Amino acid sequence: MTPDTSEQLTDFGFGTQIRKSPYFDATLRWGAQGYSVYNHMYIPRDFGDPEQNFWNLVNDAILCDVAVERQVEISGPDAARFVQMMSPRDLSQMQVGQCKYVILTNQHGGILNDPILLRLAEDRFWFSLADSDVLFWAQGLAAHGGYDVNIHEPDVSPLQLQGPRSRDIMIALFGEWISDLKYYWFKPASLNGIDVIVSRTGWSSELGYEIFLQNSAQGDQLYETIMQTGKDMGLKPGHTSTIRRIEGGMLSYHADVDITNNPFEVGLDRLVNLDGDFDFIGKDALRQIKAEGIKQRQVGLVINTPPLAAPNTRFWPVLNASGDVIGKVTSAVFSPRLKKNIALAMISTDHANIGSAVSVDMGKGSVSAEIVEVPFHDPKKNIAKI
User: Fold this and answer.
1) What is the pLDDT of residue 2?
2) Which CATH number is 206's domain given?
3) Is 280 a domain residue?
4) pLDDT score of 11
């Protein structure tokens, strides 16, 4: 029997000051056991055993409520010029129907967000956001920059359908045209009268899709339709997998990267075009940083301890052979596939050498670790591009 939603709300202690997604009640019905807050919204973070969630993702498929990935819409005559001004990635060749992974930088070259950008029309874009208040930043820039743009948060809430069976499920939902949807492209669609946008994107490093609902009143119907269609093909309700995203070297904003980090420190050089004939916020600062060189950079670690019971909840100091602190672990987890404790860490450039032995202070004494390359699994992202 499905438990009463109102009783669960009392148990979880939800309040009105944090927004709930259009799929909130559906995730409760399908077994969500814990939530956290992201972009001022509740996001399901627990459907039981996180290792089982990982195997569900890599072997079959999971449906994740990621409505917390709020959209900031930029539209109007100056939309393309304004969007380019916000990002150091060259967007001049971006086509309608295409997605791009971008970074947004401030005047100091610090990373404000690393969203997916969707171009819906020549003069209309969505930033699909990580966890920071880009809406306020964009509106402030427009108010003082003289741009002819309209900036707002539309009624758009994505779901992620990820995993090797996701294509089969999507074909059952939408039809055979799904097979022709290219990686990092999208297409408008309709499902039982529900208008959505379907993209070949997702935060999992697996084959997957995002389904952008455009009417929050239909959220429950959309979630149930997908789950009922996919349950006989192995689909399970789930949450974004910390194990899989660390395996894939995917950044989590506020954990692995924040406003104090520049793109060169976290290996996002490919998203910075300093020689283009366009200007963007932070261009001069990033030129200077590149010329002077970075003082720290992100690396991978293998931590030599018994399997971690859970991901780290604080930054663990990383030490060299002399016991000096040379950096910090930002994200760590046990990978059941690799049978290793794997981590992302920010290390002083002088010590960030692949193969170097270091130690990690996990609060109960130091343990040995080794600096390694990232990503840990499928480094060329071939799985997601299938």
Assistant:
1) 41
2) 3.30.1360.120
3) no
4) 53
